[in-house]
């Protein structure tokens, strides 16, 4: 069986996916369990915090139809974050040496193990984008091998405990060309997806978000 490890290259991920991942990794690495497991991370926690916060801030600015300068600044902060996450993943993989609990404590994504006739893998590269009209949102993802269909959950609010309220569900057989209508402009919507095949239903993806136009 192949040794467990986390992904080191997140460059194929969309800005929305990367922003969500970065915030999760920073929070996880600041937890006492992760600090005990990884006492000398590369990059250091204060450097990681700067990389993450700078990218998230630049991404939010650029996503509101930013100028060429703002988009360029976002891209530069993205590249710096990708380098930081790659270094962190290499450090984590070396220290954890395949120990699953340690890897999971970082918030980084595990490399998928090869499988045959098993539950479908978690859908990757979930992407949200504005539709052609106000209140419309397109939803795409990378196809999951062997998946029969996909369940898409949509939430438009967060409760007092900071949990997303999933109040709408869609079923689709396609990983592309999915869309929802009649969203409230200016509202931030969250989306997650899971795949299904003859063995059952896989795990949910990490949620991504988009402010409806």
UniProtKB/TrEMBL annotation:
Pfam families cross-referenced by the UniProt entry: fn3 (PF00041)
Database matches in InterPro entries: FN3_dom, FN3_sf, Ig-like_fold
Stretches assigned to the Fibronectin type-III domain: 122-213
Protein name, as recorded: Fibronectin type III domain-containing protein
Organism in which the protein naturally occurs: Sphingobacterium alkalisoli
């Amino acid at each position: 069986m192949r040794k467990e490890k986390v992904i080191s290259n997140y460059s194929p991920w969309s800005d929305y996916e990367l922003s969500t991942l970065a915030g999760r990794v920073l929070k996880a690495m600041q937890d006492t369990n992760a600090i005990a497991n990884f006492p000398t991370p590369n990059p250091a926690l204060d450097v990681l915090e700067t990389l993450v916060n700078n990218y998230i801030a630049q991404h939010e600015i650029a996503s509101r139809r930013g100028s060429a300068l703002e988009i360029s600044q976002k891209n530069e902060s993205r590249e710096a974050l990708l380098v930081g996450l790659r270094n962190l993943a290499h450090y984590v993989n070396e220290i954890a040496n395949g120990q699953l609990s340690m890897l999971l404590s970082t918030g980084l994504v595990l490399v998928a193990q090869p499988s045959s006739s098993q539950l479908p893998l978690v859908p990757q590269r979930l992407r949200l984008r504005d539709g052609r009209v106000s209140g419309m949102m397109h939803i795409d993802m990378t196809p999951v091998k062997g998946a029969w269909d996909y369940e898409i959950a949509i939430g438009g609010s967060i409760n007092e405990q900071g949990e997303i309220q999933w109040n709408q569900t869609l079923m689709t057989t396609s990983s592309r060309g999915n869309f929802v209508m009649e969203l409230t402009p200016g509202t931030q919507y969250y989306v997650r997806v899971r795949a299904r095949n003859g063995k059952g239903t896989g795990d949910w993806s990490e949620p991504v978000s988009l402010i409806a136009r």
